[in-house]
Every structure is written in structure tokens, then in C-alpha cells.
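Regression test case RT-17, inverse folding.

Input:
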């Protein structure tokens, strides 16, 4: 495979790299320096419709949907192996484009490999059922692929959050049009090239890059679109739900979060501190499921805060490509300004900045979008900094007095993605897990997921779920077949 940054990046439609009808290109930047990293073709709505047409034709005319599932499985396993063989190149590409430390990018690409393998293993296990009916009749259901499925991804885990939904859609026999985020499109296009090499038929996996409002909506509004999976902000999710509702499209929305992490007095404080540090400073806090609101029992606030602060202040910040770096830059200058804006709000609302709160001071980092790991305390709950998703390495700290108070504060948010609980008491663990209004709970763990475990948000964090065997139901439709198998009585 060619070196990943060698050539300009085009759209990937019908198995070919094409420049797009407008001939426009945009610059993709390295967030550690804000210098140009690559050029990428920008699609127009016409290109989006062309991709949908090609995908629809491939769905009808190739054998992808009609072949035995085991053949799709083989192709997807081959794709997983190819990606594994190119893991280092993809990880470096992801780090250069998105900024996260190489160690994290390696983990992301390994997760994509595992996701492909997991869904490859399910490609020949999409089963229907028989249903008892009265009389000489036989009733059964079959699960059929939908047709063309559209997938719109964000920039924080560029390839991982693209393939998290693309893999089950392909395994179920659909053809796919993927739109990665404009800031981080490179790994998706490189992945499509790899899919071609693995034998995914032309037109079954297409990638278009372009502005969300124009190109993303053109894809979802296209008459050939049979389902949409969107991962991104809650505001855009609402807009997509409106467009999808007009067309009565099945929709999966994976949206923002403002995750609470609850620390009870009996918790292992050292482990909790490490988990909390990981849950907010990993990927520079640019995570939907970031554990961004620490709620700690008042009796252990001081020792816990001291440890989390020590972690924040010891993190090695720098270009994700450098050895030993633990936190990279934010993805863009806009994101840096946004994060610092929330910190300024917290300050003016009466909160205290325990540590951080500014750009990283090192002159060597001045060109990039580096911000210090930040801890805020005593911020009023009415403050934007506590209520809205910051999407940066910013932890807010508050205390609780008992379980009821902890649960009330944890649920006092529009969001409901992931909640964390730290306790050694089984009863507290189960009781609080049951009472938290969120789609996922981790107990004595930092945010953690696997391709086989459902990933879901409730309230403003989303609709539906991803991952796990049952997600194949989102990418297939159930058809019921009722037969009268009675033999007509012969007249004697
Ligand atoms: P975003 O909503 O700005 O963009 C996400 C994608 O949607 C991009 O590809 C963008 O081009 C596209 N888009 C924008 N407007 C569109 C429109 N009108 N129609 C169709 N597509 C459109 O989000 P982002 O800034 O890229 O990512 C950060 C957000 O994503 C955060 O809110 C984060 O919490 C959320 N997120 C959620 C999950 C999850 O699984 N729940 C995972 C990661 C990120």
C-alpha cells in the first residue's frame, strides 16, 4: 500500500478515487502545528447523489447482498487482516490528522480490526424465525439488508467511529456511503482503498468528504438512502432527525455527553484517581463519554482531588507522534477557543480553577492547539461549564452527602451517555447503576467498551445503540412470509 500521506486525497466512489465535480480541495491541518498536512477533494451535493446512485446499483447488481454470508465474512476478515498489517501506518495517519498520542491511535486502529472481525463472524448468522400459526399454514421471517445505508462520523475517533457502524452494515449485506468529518477525513479514504484491496466489490463502500449541512443532508435526503447512522453533536443530531423523519428513515443517533463519575467513601482512591484522570484527559477530553463531572463524597474529596490534580499536572503534553506523550493537542484552533471559553465562563460564574485553565505555556507548543489539563471546582450548577459538553480536558468537581444526593446530581443533566461509579460495596454499585439515567454504566473502571457490548445514550445523548450482536437488526429489515401449505382435498 502506498505511503499514506503521499498523494492528495480524493473522494472514493464506485471503487475509484475521483476528484469531485466542483474540482474543489481543502487543506487538512496537523493540529500539533496547524500546518497543512494534506489536500482533500470536497464533494458537492451532486457528488453525494452520485455516490448514492453507485451504491444503490452495487447493492442491486453485485453479489454482496445475495451471496452466502460466509463470503462476506471472508472478505471482512481479509480487510481486518490488511488493516492489522498496516496498523502502524494508519495509527500515524490518525495521530497526524487528529492529534491524539500515537499510543491511543494504535489502540483505536486495533479496535477497528477487532470490530471488523467481530462483525465478520456474524455475517452468516443473520437469522429469521418460524412463527406458529393456525391451520395448514407455515409462517417464517427473513432478515434482509436494507440497501444503501448512510454513515456520518465525527472527528474525535475518525476511523473507529466510522467503522463502528459501517462494519455491521457491510456484514449484513448493505452497501454503504460514509461521510467522515471534514477535519479528519484521511483515514476513511485510506480505509476504502484497503477495502478495495480486500475484495469488497466496487460501489459497496463509498466515501464522500464535504460540509455536513450540504453533503451530509444530501446523502440522508437522497431517495436511495435506507437508513442513517450519525455520530456527532446533539444539535446536528436533532437536525438530522428532522430530515430523516420527513423520509421515515430508520435512524441511529450517537450524540454528546456530560458524564458523571461518582466516588463513594469506600472506593479505592488510588484506582479511582487513575480512572478519573484517564476518563477526562485521554484524547484530550474530546470524547462523547468523557467522565467530565466528578461527584465525590465530601469525606474523600480532599485526598481524591489531590491525586487527580497530581495526575493532571504530571501529564506529558506534546505532539502525539513524540515518544512518551500522554496528551496531544485539541483538534483545531476553534476547539481550543471553545474549551478556553468554557473555562472563562466557569471563572466568571464564581468557580475556581484548581489547575490548568490556559494554553500549554511551552514555546515549543505555541503553534499547535495545546491546552493544559484543567480541573474546576465549586462552579455553580447553573454555569454553562457544568451543563454543556465542553469536549476538552476539563473536569468539574462537586461533592455529595449520600446516595440520593449523588444520584440526583448525576441525573441533573440533559445528557445520558455513560456514568461511572467507584465503590467496593456491591449493593451501592448495583443500586446506583440502576438509578443512573444513562445508556452505559462502568463500575470501578474508566470509560470502557468492546465491539460486543452495546454502546448507547439516552436523553440528549442519542437514539438506538451501536455494537453487539443485536445491532444487526438495525441494518436489516424483517420480512414475514405466510404460506398456506394445505393440500386441496381430492374429489372422489
Ligand atoms: P458535529 O455534529 O459537528 O459533526 C459530526 C458529523 O456530522 C461531521 O461529519 C459533520 O460534517 C456532519 N454534519 C454536520 N452538520 C450536518 C448536517 N446538517 N447534516 C448531516 N451531517 C452534518 O460533531 P463533531 O464536532 O464532529 O464531533 C463532536 C461531537 O460528537 C460531540 O458532541 C461528541 O459528544 C459527539 N460524539 C458522540 C459519540 C457517541 O458515540 N455518542 C462519539 C463521538 C462523538
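Golden output:
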Amino acid at each position: 500500500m502506498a505511503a499514506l500521506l503521499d498523494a492528495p486525497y480524493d473522494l472514493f466512489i464506485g471503487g475509484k478515487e475521483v476528484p469531485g465535480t466542483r474540482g474543489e480541495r481543502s487543506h487538512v491541518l496537523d493540529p500539533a502545528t496547524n500546518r497543512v498536512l494534506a489536500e482533500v477533494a470536497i464533494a458537492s451535493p451532486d457528488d453525494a447523489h452520485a455516490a448514492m446512485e453507485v451504491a444503490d446499483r452495487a447493492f442491486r447488481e453485485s453479489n454482496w447482498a445475495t451471496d452466502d454470508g460466509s463470503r462476506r465474512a471472508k472478505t471482512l476478515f481479509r480487510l481486518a487482516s490488511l488493516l492489522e498489517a498496516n496498523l502502524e501506518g494508519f495509527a500515524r495517519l490518525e495521530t497526524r490528522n487528529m492529534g491524539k498520542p500515537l499510543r491511543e491511535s494504535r489502540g483505536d486502529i486495533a479496535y477497528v480490526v477487532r470490530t471488523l472481525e467481530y462483525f465478520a463472524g456474524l455475517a452468516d448468522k443473520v437469522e429469521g424465525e418460524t412463527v406458529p400459526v393456525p391451520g395448514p399454514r407455515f409462517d417464517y421471517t427473513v432478515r434482509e439488508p436494507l440497501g444503501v445505508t448512510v454513515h456520518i462520523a465525527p472527528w474525535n475517533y475518525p476511523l473507529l467511529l466510522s467503522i463502528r457502524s459501517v462494519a455491521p452494515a457491510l456484514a449484513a449485506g448493505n452497501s454503504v456511503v460514509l461521510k467522515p468529518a471534514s477535519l479528519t477525513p484521511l483515514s476513511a479514504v485510506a480505509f476504502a482503498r484497503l477495502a478495495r484491496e480486500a475484495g469488497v466489490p466496487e460501489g459497496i463502500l463509498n466515501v464522500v468528504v464535504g460540509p455536513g449541512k450540504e453533503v451530509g443532508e444530501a446523502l440522508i435526503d437522497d431517495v436511495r438512502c435506507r437508513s442513517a447512522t450519525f455520530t456527532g453533536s446533539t444539535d446536528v443530531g436533532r437536525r438530522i432527525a428532522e430530515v430523516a423523519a420527513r423520509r421515515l428513515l430508520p435512524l441511529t443517533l450517537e450524540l454528546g455527553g456530560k458524564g458523571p463519575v461518582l466516588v463513594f467513601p469506600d472506593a479505592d482512591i488510588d484506582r479511582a484517581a487513575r480512572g478519573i484522570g484517564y476518563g477526562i484527559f485521554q484524547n484530550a477530553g474530546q470524547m462523547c463519554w468523557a467522565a467530565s463531572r466528578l461527584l465525590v463524597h465530601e469525606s474523600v474529596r480532599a485526598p481524591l482531588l489531590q491525586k487527580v490534580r497530581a495526575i493532571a499536572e504530571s501529564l506529558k503534553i506534546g505532539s502525539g507522534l513524540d515518544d512518551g506523550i500522554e496528551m496531544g493537542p485539541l483538534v483545531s484552533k476553534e476547539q481550543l477557543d471553545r474549551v478556553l471559553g468554557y473555562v472563562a465562563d466557569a471563572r466568571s460564574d464564581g468557580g475556581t480553577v484548581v489547575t490548568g485553565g490556559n494554553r500549554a505555556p511551552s514555546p515549543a507548543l505555541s503553534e499547535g492547539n495545546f491546552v493544559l489539563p484543567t480541573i474546576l471546582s465549586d462552579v455553580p450548577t447553573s454555569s454553562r461549564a457544568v451543563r454543556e459538553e465542553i469536549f476538552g480536558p476539563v473536569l468539574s468537581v462537586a461533592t455529595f452527602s449520600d446516595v440520593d444526593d449523588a444520584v440526583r446530581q448525576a441525573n441533573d443533566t440533559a445528557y445520558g451517555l455513560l456514568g461511572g461509579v467507584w465503590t467496593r460495596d456491591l449493593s451501592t454499585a448495583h443500586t446506583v447503576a440502576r438509578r443512573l439515567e444513562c445508556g452505559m454504566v462502568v463500575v470501578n473502571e474508566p470509560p470502557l467498551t468492546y465491539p460486543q457490548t452495546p454502546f448507547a445514550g439516552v436523553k440528549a445523548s442519542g437514539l438506538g445503540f451501536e455494537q453487539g450482536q443485536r445491532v444487526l437488526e438495525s441494518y436489516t429489515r424483517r420480512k414475514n412470509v405466510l404460506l398456506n401449505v394445505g393440500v386441496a382435498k381430492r374429489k372422489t
